[in-house]
Amino acid sequence: MSVEESSVALRERAKQNYERVKNEVISEEKRSVLSEYRADDFDGVLLIATAPRGGSSLLFDILRHHEGTCSLDGEHDRWFTLHGIGYPALESDVVPADFESFDRERLLTDLLAEVGATDRPGDRTHRVDNTLVRLPLQFPERELPYEQIGEQLLEGASLDEILEGFGIPPLQYDEYAERDASSPFEAETIEDRPFVSSHRYKRGLTADDFDRTLVLKASGDAYRLPWIREQLFPETDVKVVHLTRNPAASINGLYDGWQLNRGFQTYDVGDLDIDGYDGSLWCYDLPPGWVREGDLVDVCLMQWAQAHRHILDTRDAFDGVLRVRFEDLLTDTRSTVEEIVDFADLGASELLSENVGNPNKVMTTKEPRHARWRDREEFVKSALAEADEPYTEVVRELGYTEESEWI
């Protein structure tokens, strides 16, 4: 069976179980919303675009604590994958602006399947529903007793205990992935299991919530901005935050992630001969011109440069684009977030203000600290010194020519 045939078969198994969960298992309230609304019914969308390891998970987590927003529990790539939008149907993560080989209405409905509204009281039923709709995508090869799992979760059982009861190591799932697995994570899946998590300040959607702003983020969006504008949300007010981060820190984070045995594997592209990587699956985004062999640090450099090059070249598809430095988000968090909130016309939020003062740690490869890339400074700088276009031009356009500003 070819890679594409295997991918199609996997998606069909996931779709079958997902449709059953969506139509029969989740709460009646959630089923009602999904029968009447789609993701493009929101008044506005705020899209965070960046390269992988660019800090978007932190920014997304802060913004999804705003009471004027709705959000998924993580990146939305899994729903694109479920609909065959990406590799191997396409050669890379680039989705052409005129790509129409997908069921738009169904995709927009599926994108809504785990969206919740930020509200201080929260809603346990919403979190249980979200767990249930993700399980078929996370474990498409398994026939799980979804009704039983839902009942146990509603009764207060912990997800890690439930998973262990089915022989699923909690290390391979969501917020329980706190350390590396003992061996590479090779199982086929629609989505990366670790790191996807809700928070207690979310509840199920109501009709009144569609006048809020939907916050979306996925690093793969760097390669599909015109398609998102023209095919997915052609009539929606979409604003883009272009989040940048200096190349040394980003590439260092990518290098770390490739070497971990959890959470960042994305594609089975066939045999890989990448010096510095022992796994068999591609990690992070798949840029055009990706290679099967070479040095891992050069692959990471390509991933950073290509993502930002595509954002810079396609940002004109949107009327509103705000460029924000991740370095400013770290050193002047409150002012930077206020700038984004003003740009998105979100207004004040007490819950957001509290979270800005003590943001969560999300999708970290190691304990966060400034300029961690200097632990392997000579190695990283040597790779950057040998880089040429498009790297050097992207560095100049993003304003990262002064190394003293690289934190």
Overall description:
It is a single chain. This protein is an alpha/beta fold and 407 residues long. The protein has 16 helices and eleven strands. α10 packs across α11 (296-314) and α10 (247-259) crosses α15 (377-385). The relative contact order is 0.17. Residues 174-186 have low confidence and may be disordered. The strands form three sheets. The protein has a seven-stranded mixed sheet with strand order 4-3-2-5-1-6-11. A two-stranded antiparallel sheet has the order 7-9. It is globular and about 55 Å long. It has helices spanning 3-25, 28-36, 56-63, 77-82, 104-111, 124-138, 146-154, 159-165, 225-232, 247-259, 296-314, 326-331, 333-343, 350-357, 377-385, 391-398; strands spanning 44-49, 69-71, 116-118, 202-203, 213-217, 237-244, 265-267, 273-275, 282-283, 293-295, 320-325. Helix content is 41%, strand content 11%. It has one domain (3-405).
